[in-house]
Amino acid sequence: MRAETLIADLIDRTRANMNRAEALRQLPLSALNARTAPERWSALECIEHLNRYGRFYLPEIEQRMKASRHPASPDFRSGWLGNYFAKALAPKEKLNHMKTFSTMDPKGSALDAGVLDVFLQQQQQMLLLLDRARRTDLSRVRTAVSFMPLLRLRLGDTFRVVIYHNERHLGQAEREAAGLAHERSLAGNAQ
Amino acid sequence: MSPTHELARLIEVESLWEKSLDLPRNTYLKVSGSIDRNLYYVEEGSLRMFVIREFEEHTIRFAYTGNFFAALDSFITGQPSDLYIQTIRRTQLKVLSRSRFMEVVQQSPEYSAIWTRILELVVVQQLEREQDILTTSPAERYERVMQRSPQLFQEIPHKYIASYLRMTPETLSRIKKS
């Protein structure tokens, strides 16, 4: 596919992700900390999970692009493994349950709405990197992966993995936050 | 009638609008790195345009109810631009693509004259703004903008006015009091 088509698509997905985070920020802290079951993540824990991924991938992407000598390429071809991960992490109608790694598990951390500010700042950084990626080769620049040492993904696939993963957990955060609102309105009716 | 009103009326009469948007507060309409070749009209609400440098937001301009606006760099060149555009409060917009708008402008001398007039006004505003930024004294910067657009101080939250005036919110409070 054309590299520009992918970059423009990922920029627009990031814009949508930022708007979803802004919408979450309008909610009361009680909704952001609520969970629909004891073992589930709250909305803020979902976002903290994404921030932990961002803390790994944003500097990793930046450094790999900086170190690269590859000239810009107008095309991008997905790698089979990168494509597999991107698709596995994307949100689906019926979500496939996945297990996270302990360092990425936010459960039990003390969280406030500042988590959303960090997420939004990371997205601004992401936009900067996506724009810079227009002057590089999305297939030949490769990055490390947080969950598998030795493995390298093509830069275009790394961007897809991180941004689709953001979409997935923003959906989860919205559902957890809305779960409380639902219970509340039921309680209100009972009185 | 101002050229802005005239253009809005013409587009309305000929029902050229392609889309309406109803956006909650703090919605990003455009982000850095994207291309946006639409012309927007604010039916109700307000927005800010800014760029980010070294993790800091720098406010470039605002749009209020009754204004046209565009990401003018991207609108003209068709290239990605660094501009962010975000709603300040709930905002209703009408949208017209450049391609459709330019078709009409090229066919109609009436449209063409109004559009030229609007672009001329934008150039004059940009020169004013350039002089704002070159004015060293914060109090003088405040005075210039106050004279030019008192509406700003009624519609826009303090922190964004301070950013537009290139001063901290504390400095702006102090100047307002004195």
Keywords for this entry:
heterodimer, A: 191 residues, Four Helix Bundle (Hemerythrin (Met), subunit A), two-stranded antiparallel sheet, 6 helices, B: 178 residues, alpha+beta, four-stranded antiparallel beta sheet, 8 strands
Summed up, what is this model?
The complex is a heterodimer of chains A (191) and B (178). Chain A contains 6 helices and 2 strands, in the order αααααββα. Chain A has helices at residues 3-25, 29-33, 43-67, 80-89, 114-132, 155-190, and strands at 142-145, 148-154.
Structure explained in plain terms:
The complex is a heterodimer of chains A (191) and B (178). With 191 residues, chain A is mostly helical. Chain A has a single domain, classed as dinb family like domain (Four Helix Bundle (Hemerythrin (Met), subunit A)), CATH 1.20.120.450. In chain A, 62% of the residues lie in helices and 6% in strands. A two-stranded antiparallel sheet of chain A has the order 1-2. The termini of chain A are far apart. With 178 residues, chain B is α+β, with helices and mostly antiparallel strands. Chain B has a domain of 106 residues: Jelly Rolls, CATH 2.60.120. In chain B, 48% of the residues lie in helices and 25% in strands. Chain B is built from 8 helices and 8 strands, in the order H-E-E-E-E-E-E-H-E-E-H-H-H-H-H-H. In chain B, the strands form 2 sheets. A 4-stranded antiparallel beta sheet of chain B has the order 1-8-3-6. A 4-stranded antiparallel beta sheet of chain B has the order 2-7-4-5. The longest helix of chain B has 26 residues. The termini of chain B are far apart. The mean pLDDT of chain B is 94. The interface between A and B is medium-sized, with 19 and 14 residues.
